[in-house]
Amino acid sequence: MTDPTERTFSEPTEAIMQATYRALRNYGYADLTIKRIAEEYGKSTAAIHYYYDTKDDLLVAFLDYLLEQFVDSIRSIETTDPERRLEILLDELLVTPEENRDLLVAILEMRSQAPYKETFRDRFRQNDDYIRYMLKAVINHGIDEGVFDDVDADHVTRALMTIVDGARTRAVVLDDTALPTARQTASEYVDAMLMPEGHD
Amino acid sequence: MTDPTERTFSEPTEAIMQATYRALRNYGYADLTIKRIAEEYGKSTAAIHYYYDTKDDLLVAFLDYLLEQFVDSIRSIETTDPERRLEILLDELLVTPEENRDLLVAILEMRSQAPYKETFRDRFRQNDDYIRYMLKAVINHGIDEGVFDDVDADHVTRALMTIVDGARTRAVVLDDTALPTARQTASEYVDAMLMPEGHD
Predict the structure, then answer these.
(1) ipTM at complex level
(2) Quick one: which of A69, B47, B80, B163 has the most CB atoms within 10 Å?
(3) pLDDT digits over A16-41, tens only?
(4) Whereabouts does the entry annotate DNA binding, in residue ranges (chains A, B) (predicted)?
């Protein structure tokens, strides 16, 4: 898999990504057009087509961009304490998205198209692989240090991402308490699976 | 909320629902048309429009139909043992859908449209309310009988539905192991939250 931390966005593509972000929040995926993105960008559609042939090419780049944002926010975590680091990762996955509810709506539309669009599917899978890789590294570190129980780190990581994806779907479809409920559930699950008996 | 167990489908509407089911599995939501449903039904589009004005009316009825199927499968559970009953409910939510992967694809497309279509949103919320109501009844029964710890049954129910919805989304977007992973996660969560200390 390509290391997403090695992807970079040049100044114009960064501005196009920010325009895409605003257009997705305003119009959703189904009603998104290059014209609407160009309006947000403040330039012509040709200025966008110079970098991206199609709307789908641009959206695949946008999924890379979102992962890059996430990776940046993770890179700024300074603590190496496994327990604290896992808490911060789960906050990034389940608390921070609260600020971007409209984006969650657009992402769910794109996810629902994954069975029909291989490029979307590949990108969602890569992003999920990468986030699971980061979670697993923290869990394995905690196991090595003896602060977490010796669990199947791959399973625990997939379980946590199931809670994350459930929260993202429920936040769009059902109710406003989906993210806080899932954050609490993730903590309860981490306590039950990773924390040695008698841990406070 | 309307009690979904009181909804019934007459013989022709039952046949239309089965045709809708097949058409959704074959074409997905975006490419679904009344014409394609009529082909599966083996009658004219007028025969469908006699019962349903629009495709969306028909799909809202289809969401009722799916809940009715689920309620029927639950009604046939004979055991009143809370622990066993909860296991069977979780199997219905996380094992049985494996047989209907194509339907999960179509349902996720409809879910992603919930922010734009109030009728879909209302129905998804009603269905979620009803399933949580059934889960909560089992959990409260177990608490009353002293076989489950005295937990916040509403939170535990929402947590379990977060795992269920995460599995449904991941099964469509990401990987083939999403449902079994979530089934295991649900059991681990139930053990941690509901089972008294020292329970095997």
Answers:
(1) 0.91
(2) B163
(3) 999 999 999 888 888 899 999 999 99
(4) 33-52
